[in-house]
Every structure is written in structure tokens, then in C-alpha cells.
Amino acid sequence: MSPERLVPHNPATGQPLDPVDCTTPDAVREVVARARTAQRAWAATPAGERAQKIRAVAQAIGAQADALARSICDEMGKPIREARAEARSIAARVESFITAADQALADDEGVENGIAMRVRWRPLGVVGVIAPWNYPVATPSNLLLSALLTGNAAVFKPSEFTPHTGALLHRLYSETLPEGLVGLVQGAGDVGAALVASDVDMIAFTGSIATGQAIMRTAAASMKRLVLELGGKDPMLVLPGADLQAAARHAADEALRNAGQVCVSVERIIVHADVADEFTRRVADLVRAVKPGDPRDEATSFGPMASARQRDLVLEQLADARRHGATFVVEGQAQGPGYYLTPTVVTDLKPEMTLVRDETFGPVVAIQVARDVDEAVALANDTRYGLGASVWGPPGPQLDAVADRIEAGMVGVNRGLSTAAGGPWVGWKMSGLGYTRSVAGMRHFLQPQSQARRAG
Ligand code: NAD
């Protein structure tokens, strides 16, 4: 019997790309077994040597940035310049991963009541890495680098929408690292579920909340370790005294980047009534200037959505908002060929709208108006999500206090969120379980072992 096949589509044209064979359940088990064998020698390799090999992987990814960018562009429609920047970002961040891993692997030591305690940090074994399509190089690499630098093997399942990019990325890891250490399985959710149910020790996942919940259920049977990086509904608070042009620029850029398909997109703008009209006018002017283009064209900054399914989800939310009385300042249009959706600016939103409640993941600037700061904070926190956020206003202790009240894992103050200087990439509430980056994030990929001895 011939294997099932994935047929990805070019979102700019709607045309099918070359098919890719799905991995059978038996083959999933074999890939995991090979990774387990390779992991033993990898775990015994000094951390410094492992880091050197990972640097070589990052270099290989950088050297293939153009090929990766073309593949990202063709499979999910990201404009080529942004796709190249994504591929190049790995080399730029690898040193911070290496530093965090080095610190995470160091023993913790202490003495109490005559007992000397040493905490050793041991690799877990094999980590299943399951990735989404929106950053098909950067997102799996964050998880793969974390797993590998801490002495684990990995088995990588790319999204069914970006299997060619996944295969190319996998080749760059596997050609540089020991045989079998990084395995590849291809397929849709059923193959992801087979990987979760397999003999892996941990699942590191980036994707939607619903899939994260499904993974938790499957992983419960064998009590697997989990890191789940999930969706967001990031608020951006704009308060009186903010630099309105800078805030409007940020809103337009970060609601529309990658056609709005970023986990930390600006999904909800909550603007104080005193500055709402001027802010809305400025954003609308910026958004009207955005022109969709061919993602392969170096001049394009706004391309198609990744799939017809994703575009239809956004259109459904916009229709629901219209039914509930929203005002469309700029009205997005579906355009073909391909899965284009031009940007929307919409106001007069109500809490019951799906556009306010659920992740949109599309090119929509959604504006809510708050009477005062307390209402703005309450609206920002009235969600099951808690990934990112930003607050905009006169810099100082008052604005810092507003940031402190936001229930999100990552908050930017007069800028977008960032994980510079060893900060964690982390969600709050239903936006995540466990986290990555930072020393503490690296330790999610390790098993602590307390060793007690008589002191002295
Ligand atoms: P998705 O959850 O549909 O799919 C993600 C991956 O999970 C795919 O590889 C898919 O095949 C696999 N999968 C599906 N069902 C599975 C199952 N039952 N068991 C195991 N694996 C399964 O998400 P998507 O549409 O690819 O990506 C978009 C989502 O990812 C958005 O919600 C976005 O916010 C989120 N995301 C989060 C971050 C973050 O850092 N928090 C980053 C990027 C994307």
C-alpha cells in the first residue's frame, strides 16, 4: 500500500506543490528508536563540544537562508525578505541559547543540617518537537536547539502546511550532527499524535491551544514532560500622553506582520477614550497605505494568508463582528488568485464578539475604547490567553505599574515585547505550559536529580 501523501499549496497562487509522503506509525517508532540510540553518545559528549556542533548547524542554516526563504515563501506566503530574516535569525540567537544551556547544566549545591546537597541536571532522552507553519524555521529551531544543547535527541514533525521547509531544515541539522540524533516525521495531526504516543520522553510543542490540550490528553498515559507554547490574543494599551504616531506605527506593523499570523501579533488594541479618535485616524492612514504583493518580490511587505482555511476563519470573525454592530474603518477584501485578505481596521467592538474572544491570526487591527486606565486593564485581562502585551504612555512609574497589572507572560513598555538578555519566551493562563529560552526555560528539557551526602 502506498503511503498517505501531503499536498501543500502555494498560498500566493493556490497551486499545489510537490507532494510529500507521510511517515507511517511503524516508521515513527523506528525514527524514535534511532534517536534514542544516538542520544546516549550525545549525552556523553562534553557540553562544549555539543555547542560547537550546534554552532555549525546555525551556520549551515545561515548559509542556506536563501533556499529556506524561498521554501517558506512558497509554502506559507511569507514575504521573501521576512522569510530570509527568519532563516538568518537562528545564527543571531544561537549564542544566547548556548549560554543559557551552559548555566542550566551546572550543578546547584548547598549544605543544610550537615547534609551536602548537589542537584544534577540530566537530559531527559528523546524530545518530540511538533511545530506550526507560521515560523517554520525559527519556531522548531527554538525547540530543537533547547533539546539538543541540553544533551537530548529530537524527533521533529513540521506542520503539514510546510513539509518541504521542514525537510530542508531537518537536513541541515541531521547532516551536521551525529547520525539519527535528529529524526524527521512528516504528516498531519495523526502523525503528531503518533509521535506523542511513541516512546519519546518529552513533547516540545508550538501551536494552538486546542492541539496543546489534545497533546496533554495523549501524553497523560505515560506522564510525558511537556512544554507547550500556545496561541495569544495580545492586547496593546494606548494611554493619554503616548507617542501616538509611534503607537500607531507599532499597531499597524505588528497587527499585519506575516499577514497577522504571528503568535504575538497585536490582536486587540485598547485605546483610552481621550486619544481614541486621533489614534484610530493615524492607524487607518498607515493601514490604507499597505499594498498586497507577490511574496517572492523583494519589495513586498504584505503577502497572502497561509491557507484558505485560515483566511475563512478570519472572514467568519469579521462577519460575526459586523452582525454585532462593529464599525469598519478600513474594510478587508478577499482577493485571488491565492489566499489574499487585505487589511481591516475595525472599531466599536463588544466583548461577546469572536473577534474579541478568540485568536484571530489574520490582518485585522481591532480597536476597543476604554473610559479610563482601570477599564483598559480590565479589558486587557478579560481573556483566557496571556502570551504577550504592550503598554504605551508617558514613560515612568505610572506606566510601569500598568505593565505590572497585565496578565501576560511578556510585556513591552513603549515597544513590542522581547526576550533580550536571557528573558524567557513564556505564556500565562492558557497561552502556555512551561516555557523556553532563559536558564529556567532550558531546565524544562532536563531532569533534576538531588544527590545528598554527609557534609564535611
Ligand atoms: P496547530 O495546533 O493546528 O498545529 C501545530 C502542529 O500540531 C502541527 O504540526 C500539527 O500537525 C500538529 N498536530 C495537530 N493535531 C495534533 C495532535 N492531536 N497531536 C499532536 N500534534 C498535532 O497550529 P497551527 O495552525 O500550525 O499554528 C498556529 C498556532 O500556533 C496559533 O495558535 C499560534 O498562536 C500558535 N503559535 C504559538 C507560538 C508561541 O510561541 N506561543 C508561536 C507560533 C505559533
Write the layout of secondary structure elements.
Elements: E1 5-6, E2 20-21, H1 25-44, H2 47-63, H3 65-76, H4 80-105, E3 108-112, E4 115-123, E5 126-130, H5 138-149, E6 153-157, H6 163-176, E7 182-184, H7 189-197, E8 202-206, H8 209-220, E9 225-229, E10 235-238, H9 244-256, E11 268-272, H10 273-288, H11 308-323, E12 327-330, E13 334-335, E14 340-341, E15 344-347, H12 354-357, E16 364-370, H13 373-381, E17 388-392, H14 397-404, E18 410-413, E19 432-433, H15 438-442, E20 446-454
Parallel strand pairs: 5-6, 5-8, 6-7, 8-9, 10-11, 10-17, 11-16, 15-16, 17-18
Antiparallel strand pairs: 1-2, 3-4, 4-20, 9-19, 12-15, 13-14
Bound molecules: nicotinamide-adenine-dinucleotide.
Residues 130-135, 139, 157, 159-160, 188-189, 192-193, 196, 206-208, 211, 214-215, 229-232, 263, 359, 361, 387, 427, 432 line the site of nicotinamide-adenine-dinucleotide (NAD).
Task: Give a written overview of the molecule.
By secondary structure, the chain is α/β, with parallel strands linked by helices. 42% of the residues lie in helices and 20% in strands. It has 15 helices and 20 strands. The strands form five sheets. A seven-stranded mixed sheet has the order 12-15-16-11-10-17-18, with helices on both faces. Strands 7-6-5-8-9-19 form a six-stranded mixed sheet, with helices on both faces. A three-stranded antiparallel sheet has the order 3-4-20, with no helix packed on it. β5 (126-130), α5 (138-149) and β6 (153-157) form a beta-alpha-beta unit. α2 (47-63) packs across α6 (163-176). The chain is globular. The relative contact order is 0.14. The mean pLDDT is 97. The structure holds nicotinamide-adenine-dinucleotide. The site of nicotinamide-adenine-dinucleotide (NAD) has 31 residues, from α7 and α8.
